[in-house]
Design brief:
Chains A, B: Residues 39-138 form the Polymerase nucleotidyl transferase domain. Chains A, B: Its cofactor is Mg(2+). Two copies of one chain form a homodimer. Chain A has helices spanning 3-16, 20-44, 54-58, 80-94, 140-150, 153-168, 183-193, 196-205, 222-229, 252-267, 281-291, 311-331, 374-384, 410-416, 418-421, 446-457, 461-464, and strands spanning 49-53, 67-74, 101-104, 108-114, 117-125, 212-214, 234-238, 241-245, 298-304, 336-343, 348-355, 363-370, 393-395, 398-404, 430-435. Chain A has 17 helices and 15 strands. In chain A, a hairpin with a 4-residue loop joins strand 10 and strand 11 (348-355). In chain A, 43% of the residues lie in helices and 20% in strands. Chain A folds into four domains: 1-150, Beta Polymerase, domain 2 (2-Layer Sandwich); 151-275, Poly(a)-polymerase, middle domain; 281-359 and 408-471, Poly(A) polymerase predicted RNA binding domain (Alpha-Beta Plaits), CATH 3.30.70; 363-404, no CATH class. At the A-B interface, helix 10, strand 12, helix 13, strand 13 and strand 14 of A face helix 10, strand 12, helix 13, strand 13 and strand 14 of B.
């Protein structure tokens, strides 16, 4: 038994486990919301049940991360259209005093902030046992039941540790921005392995990405399931629905990061894995000063959005734009170290790629056809005979030539291709392309400065825990 | 029938076909040499036959390229050691007045220059029919017999065209410097196809490198032969010895160049394919001026040799050095466009590589292990956590980091590795590493200047024929 780890986990639990008074506070907020919705039901006369779900209902919520999920459950004869066109607009108007924020997953829902607690109000449709589920959230109630049934007080604390760990290392959340581990996934994994430490040990020593298959209740046929799910990094069968992979959102990166973080935590348990140490502003300044060498290797696309998009939509498009941008750079032989996006999720976003160099040589090597392709090889010679006058020549049985590069600057290249990069909802945004070295003032914004630093450092947050700042 | 080509070939033949008086001149030189060797035989009392072989004996020599091969043939009970230790030193002393140049293939031989004609004097051992051949040159007599028997006056002219074409496009010669087509190989190919034009057509439209198998007399078993010869670019069975591939020396490049040149000649017949136009000095200056942009991308190793080596040995080592040099540059992520060597074959040689850039960024991307390699991945993180402070990070299931490059300059890199590059007989040479831009004065030497220009242009000589200098 690792007593050092025990000590760390005890301290962490003290910080994350809600007290009786925390419970009371959340309960009173829940009651407030349920009352509001009851009044809404009476006023609209829509047939609905109101139900508190999620980690609060399951008893697995974190004191450091209080949140409530309140579900509006419509009878099974309703459909998504009704939610979207009838229920949602009325609900939004009804809750206007709480300044609701519009969210969107499969259909719209609302987020309120009440006394610092995030409250999601989620309309859904009841799914009858055995019938086809209409929206993903309709399973929530089944999930709540399952987790409550399979856990006791001890296991709920273990789940809290798992969630705090995942949050600390930056892999908590199934949303597109993160592509990590959902709360329900961490609950199932902790239940399956019987505790937090055993979960980490499994991740560290047993998990092989692409070969993880977990079916707690043995409700699925592994062969059939693997076929149905394609080849995801990990498969965790939903015990309430064998057709569903609870880990479907988990990206290869986040899974790998979880595995590596588990290995490093087990050999070097530190509270910083759960609570990444915020950088002292002086230290941040110093590191940004060091990182300044790389400012001229960062291509930025600064976006101003005309319309506000739901976060999942926005992040989906930012990530798509990022991947097109990376592709264009690589097709033009820029060496791309890393790309990332930042957004205030309101009106401003930034795409960034770190390159080995933002300026390429004027000339580039063209690999021509093998000489056995007769027509093609003669055309190649004709094409490159005079321009830019070096080559063509033959190596082995293949033709080569030197050609002139159209764009030697990464920034000009990206500017020329903005139309390809900004598609769908991003076409409306205004975009400004530059190198970070031309725009050092953007790091004055605290949030952007922190993101730039973390982008340049490149390390996942769990490595910051091991980083000795004095050494860099 | 392509009359344009006919016209070109007629003009070429007028230039390359020896006249009766050319014949007489060469014959008298042959007699002179044979007489000298007869006297040598009488003086030394070594049992030997003296025989004039090669293209003069076969009637396939070029007026523009007069040369004689005179063989000293020892009876079959002699061995290579005797040639090396007894015959050769005496022969050399005997011919001292002709300033003989020492050459070396399987054993030493001598080259004389008499009235501008190159005369090779080659000791060999008679091979009895059916017995194992002792040295490669022992087959020469059989070759002479075969070619004389299979050709008439017309076919000998066709062979002359084939040789002049191969010489013009720079693929004539089996020596290591060229790795091209020997005279005997071109004789066999012309005999096989019945003429020069038909040979070019076969090369242009039928030959696929690696799949050329020619056995004029049908003396070999193709399956067995292919196994015995490995997988060379082309196989041409020696009609006098089925165990020998006459095309063994032909490199993939020279074969490919022959094929491409044949295609371009057939569609655009020009005398320049046979006689590359020498550049007007003014034009050469102008092109070198244009090429100056690239001088800073050429890494030079200038060598001064202590001892003079036989050309084949020297070129073998220069090419080996070149390939090691290219490897070291590429392992350190320099993009190498092309490498080549020049030598005066006496005391001075130059190795050169053309790079996309001679300076790399200070930082380089390191591809680490996949995270499923547990120990390896933890060691990787420990190694790169602080140095140079960017990374490590994860893409997919693999670790990456940024590291500091030891050498950012191609010249320093090559200097650090000279010990690996200059091996065997080259270790004695003094070496100076520089960029061509630091040493522009070396192009003042006419021969080196011409080589540098041709190195930078990169085009094989047969492409110069198509080049419109006005356009570059």
């Amino acid at each position: 038994m690792n007593t050092e780890a025990q000590e760390v986990e005890k301290k962490v639990l003290e910080k994350i486990k809600p007290s009786r008074s925390d419970e009371e506070t959340l309960k009173s907020i829940a009651n407030l919301v349920v009352n509001e919705l009851d009044k809404f039901k009476q006023q609209t006369r829509i047939d609905m049940k109101i139900s508190v779900e999620g980690s609060f209902a399951k008893g697995t919520w974190l004191k450091t991360d209080p949140e409530l999920d309140v579900f509006i459950i419509l009878p099974s004869n309703y459909d998504k259209e009704f939610i979207k066109n009838e229920l949602y607009p009325k609900l939004r108007a009804w809750l206007n005093d709480y300044s609701p924020i519009e969210q969107y997953s499969e259909h719209p829902y609302l987020t309120l902030q009440i006394h610092g607690v995030k409250v999601d109000i989620v309309p859904s449709i009841e799914s009858l046992p055995g019938a086809k589920i209409i929206t993903a959230v309709d399973r929530t109630h089944l999930h709540t039941e399952y987790v409550k049934r399979k856990t006791d007080e001890r296991l709920r604390d273990e789940i809290r540790l798992a969630k705090a760990f995942a949050r600390g290392i930056g892999v908590y959340g199934a949303e597109i921005k993160i592509k990590g581990f959902s709360g329900y996934l961490l609950e199932l994994l902790t239940i399956y392995y019987g505790g937090f430490r055993r979960l980490l040990e499994a991740a560290a020593y047993e998990w092989v990405p692409g070969k993880i298959y977990i079916d707690i209740e043995g409700v699925s046929d592994p062969l059939q399931a693997k076929q149905a799910f394609g080849n995801p990094p990990m498969i965790v069968i939903d015990p309430t629905d064998p057709r569903r992979n609870v880990a479907a959102a988990v990206s290869m990166e986040k899974l790998s990061e979880f595995i590596m973080a588990a290995r490093l935590y087990l050999s070097n348990p530190k509270e910083e894995f759960f609570f990444p140490k915020p950088l002292h502003p002086v230290e941040k300044r110093r590191l940004l000063g060091l990182a300044e060498t790389f400012f001229e290797n960062v291509v930025l696309v600064e976006l101003r959005h005309k319309a506000r998009l739901p976060p999942d939509t926005l992040w989906g498009e930012l990530q798509r734009a990022l991947s097109i941008m990376k592709n264009i750079l690589e097709k033009n032989e820029f060496e791309v170290y890393r790309c990332d996006a930042w957004s205030d999720e309101k009106e401003q976003s930034i795409l960034a790629c770190l390159l080995s160099t933002p300026i390429k040589t004027k000339y580039r090597l063209i690999k021509g056809p093998p000489i056995k392709e007769r027509e093609h090889s003669i055309r190649f010679i004709e094409k490159y005979l005079h321009s830019p006058f070096l080559g063509p020549w033959i190596v082995g049985d293949r033709l080569y030539a030197i050609s002139v590069r159209k764009e030697v600057l990464a920034t000009s290249l990206i500017e020329d291709h903005l139309g390809e990069i900004l598609v769908s909802d991003l076409t409306d945004s205004t975009a400004k392309v530059s190198l970070l070295s031309w725009r050092p003032e953007i790091i004055e914004d605290e949030e952007i400065g922190e993101w730039i630093l973390s982008f340049l450092l490149g390390k996942p947050k769990w490595l910051w825990a091991l980083l000795d700042y004095q050494k860099v």
